[in-house]
Write a structure and sequence with these properties.
The two termini are 33 Å apart. The chain is mainly α. It is built from 5 helices and no strands. It has helices at residues 2-13, 21-30, 35-43, 46-53, 84-96. It is elongated and about 60 Å long. Helix 3 (35-43) runs antiparallel to helix 4. It has a domain at 2-53.
Length: 97
């Protein structure tokens, strides 16, 4: 599996992608990997490759406010607008959580 991960990292790290299909096929054929993994790479089947490598089928990222972080009720009055500094503090504080 580490061969596959190293190969994918190298593909992503390159400033210029592999220029031809022939180069890609040659690179995949040179890998010391299982035949099923090789076929998934050649078919560029990310789902099958992830399945073979034991990856999670779905990854979800969610942001949740802290329990002690209370939101101000918006009563429609524009006089109580937050200053730009308040917004910046709120964003940076939530980013830490």
């Amino acid at each position: 599996m580490s061969n596959v991960i190293a190969f994918l990292e190298a593909l992503g790290r390159e400033a210029s992608p592999i220029e031809s299909e022939v180069e890609y096929i040659a690179s995949v054929e040179a890998l010391d990997v299982d035949d099923q993994v090789r076929h998934a790479l050649l078919a560029r089947d990310a789902g099958k490759l992830g399945e073979l490598l034991g990856a999670r089928p779905r990854m979800v990222c969610a942001l949740m406010p802290a329990d002690d972080d209370e939101r101000k009720d918006d009563d429609g009055d524009d006089d109580d607008k937050d200053s730009p500094d308040d917004n910046r503090e709120s964003v940076s504080r939530r980013a830490i959580h």
